[in-house]
Amino acid sequence: MSPADGAVRAAWRAVRRAKRLVWLVALTDALVFLPAALYVGVTVHRAAGHRVDATSLARVLDPDLLADMDSGSGDFRIHQTVLAAACLVLFFALRPLVMGGYVAIAARGDRIRFDEFVRVGGAVYWKFLRIALVGVVTCYLLSLAAKPLLAYIDEQASSYVTEGPAITYRRATEVFVFTAYWVLGTILDYTRVGVRMYRRPGVFVELGRSALFVLQHPVETLGFSAFAFAIELAAIWGFSELLQRADGAYVLTSLSVLLLAQVLVALREATRLFHHAGAWRIRRRAEGGAHDDPARRRPSGDDLLENLPWNQ
Amino acid sequence: MRPARPRAYNRAVPLKSLRPSAHRAAAVLLAGLLAAGLATPRSGAEEGWRAAPEQVPVRYSIEARLVEGRGGEDDLRIAGNQRIEWRNTSTEDVGVVYLHLYANAFRDSHTTLLREARDAGWKLPEDARFGGIDVRGLSLVTGEPLELTFVTPDDDEPPPGTTLVGVAPAPSTDRTVARVVLPRRVAPGETLGLRLKFTTTLPSVMRRMGCHRGFVMAAQWYPKLGRYLGTAAPGTHEGWYCPQYHWTTEFCADYADYDVELRLRSALVSGATGERVEESVDEPRGERTERWRARGVVDFAWTAHERFESYEREIEPLAVPEGRDPAADRVLRERARFAEVLGVAPEELQLPKVKVRVLLQREHARQAERYFEAARVALATYGMWLGPYPYPTLTIVDPAFGAKRAGGMEYPQLVTAATEIANPPESLDPERVILHEIGHQWFMNVLASNEAAEAWLDEGLNTYFTARSAEVGYGPAIGVTRVLSVPLLVTPFFDFPGLAAEWPRWVGLPDWAVPPRMELFEGWRDLPPLSGLPTPSYATDPLLPQRRRYLNRAGWDDMVRPSWRYADAPSYWVNAYSRPALFVNSLRRTLQAERGDAAGERAFALGMLEYARSQRFRHPTTGDFLTAFGRGSGSDATRLFDALAASAGVLDYAIEGIDVLREPPFAGIREDEGGEDVVAVPDAVPAEGEAARIRTAVLVRRRGDAVVPVRIEVTRDSGDPERATWESTWQTWDGRERWHRFVFDGRIQAARLYPRAEFLQDADRRNDSLTKRQNPRPGAKWATRFLMWIENAALSYGRFL
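Predict the joint structure of the above. Result:
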């Protein structure tokens, strides 16, 4: 029997049982980026809200408005970039907690409460943060490693006398590099699963084991990862058309875009959970099913998280 | 003041030298305008639309052979024998001759061109092949040998505006200008004959010329005379204007006749300036000999490539292409509009047919129709606005892949564009380049201004007319994002630096540590179909893209100066291209604001026609432009030129506030009917009409240095905002004071400056209008879009972590 058997069903079940948590995570994502979005909104309002052509400025992205906001001492772009970077740092600082929660959901195979989501996420936070940092450094090093390859291909492509082969080679190189990142991301997901499954103290050991596991079971692991990725792409594709149609130059249409965008974010979060749950199942089956998560510890009655209203 | 009637269309037009079809079409065009009373013949001696230059002081005869060296198709040389005849049209005896040897700009990495390029941030490709031109056997036609020495007339040390502190002057190895001392002086009216041999080793295509895998772009490939302007002319050396080849400079030459014999491999498909008058094939040697003749042009360029697909079509610019609905044809609509502006019937505007040849790379063959249509739009619009294209042929070249630096350049009767397989029609790429380069047939060749000293007269005017031509033919271009070379007609909301984009300099990473840029990663991060936005190049005015470029260097330099004397390369691009285009736009819009739409448009059209006519096949200067435009339009263009171009001053007027001024009921002492003083109490019932005394003050302040007449338009709010009747009131102010307060009777809802977009060069358009009520829509829209973009970008990044 293949380790991948039942992975989709298990992953789907995990997502279904954690709907409310996924919505909550999506809402948290929005809150994390709200300061940067508010800055954009306020700055644009100051620059355009009083203008006679304000409605048309809301209709299309006006490069002239952006040029004005950037010229002189405006520095809109720099402020926006710094704020966006700060929000991204906060997002990735919270991410290990969320990932820990996802792995907890995957491990439980049952409905999980918010308090446990946070508690398990908190328990593995530092390990998962280390995994994320290893991921960041590896991604960066991978990009530097890809640089001479890309430069070489670019140089070779430029020496062609026709455009067609040059485009093909560039495409193939970019797809190759992107695939490397995707495989890395898959390995990191299996590392998180492995850390929780085996309770190992060392991140690097588990990283190596997970890489080995992915390479030993490429069809199951990468195949399932590709399936989850395809679902994510399908969600993005489906919402693209919807969002572009919903968009307009009115406050109401902006609100509808906001709502639809949050639905999409929730769907994308769900695909991450989906992949983690499937990865847990695949790894557990490959190991003979010996690593089910231990029974849930019931918290004491005066636990703050336990007593949150949506847990009642 | 009554506008001067154009002298453009009079009976003294020397049409004899035009081809029969051109003759007929030009005659129809002119006769139509004459009939409409637009042209007032003055005297028989007065000129009309010249078909050729009055003076052609130079004649080149060149026999050239393309030779392939041992290095194969990347080792190409042009071996030539050349004869130059120069007639001294000045009033001075001339004892020296200056020659351009432009190809030597690619001789080594320390030439003026490549050094300036490096300073501008351009990187010499690692696989660059150097080239150059060797001149041998220089003599008079009588056989008397002559010696050639290299000079660097523009190399001031230190360069203007620069102080060298403990730094030795940079070594220059420039050999792009040669000086030849003549054994005897050439008297006025006398003709000098020179004979020489040259070998041009074609470099890799770094800028405009060179060869790449068998593709040849032979531009600036032969020894070329400088222009003799006289010893008193500014910028000359011993009377010759012959600048070095600079990074930011194009060319300047006398009109010349060319007779060029080219020997090429038979398999090569070629194109050149002028007309091919003879062709013979030497089959045993596999060679073809072509003879090209060009009359009254300022340069001669040619191209050859085995992979060219050649398409040829005779284009009648103002006729509807077969199978197209005349009512939907944008060019015909413009003809109708322009005819109305001039007050003639549309049918009376006719332009000569032109044989257009398109040399396309095979993989771009599908775009042939787009090339022809762009050529038609350019020939029609420029032809209507500036007089007919004077030559029977025009060649458009698509350089080989890997030689794109040869693209986007103009030569007489031959232009180069550049395209890619996946260029969607909406991107207007290559259409805009084709329009621009064909436009240079006027602003470079027909109006042969000095491109090195007064670049605005060709690049700037042409940029303006390119924008209008593209507007007529196509409308705004749509921004394109490419993912794996697949074009998507959207652009991302925000270009965040990161893994998928180049880091900005302020992050301070060394080059080796900067992550590479990859389309696929950018696509995955930005998700263009989701977060991207359709972004037209402009919303309201086709000149707005030029404004955005101008803002990058607003206030840095005067607009008119030698091209290599600007603060940096971007300042040159701004002052040669964008700023003059905005200035010409201001000329047109100001005339419309002063005289009304129709009369202003007519005045502008006549001003430009007068410039194009009076300077046709001449070498106009800035003064000539201002004089001719003023004569044609009946308005003084100098005033605006002084305000907007003569200095580096920035234009910025701002509406600082709208204040409602309430006139309270009268209180105090006033005279009664009997002349007695009485005290009016504050809460007394006001006299009739007093309660309605509300006025609104709009305070406008000049924040910049440039002074222009400022128009303000206010919108009244007459009653219920939902059913408001909008009416506008115009006020003007000469703008000389630092501030001005306009007081209007009653309430107003909004005010805006330059209601006809007269001054797009205003440095900050955010303060050009003000409404009393704030509109939350833009803020809400862009905050939402940003939130959507960044959340999804974070999740995309997070996929790998």
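Chain A touches chain B through 100 residues (CB under 8 Å).
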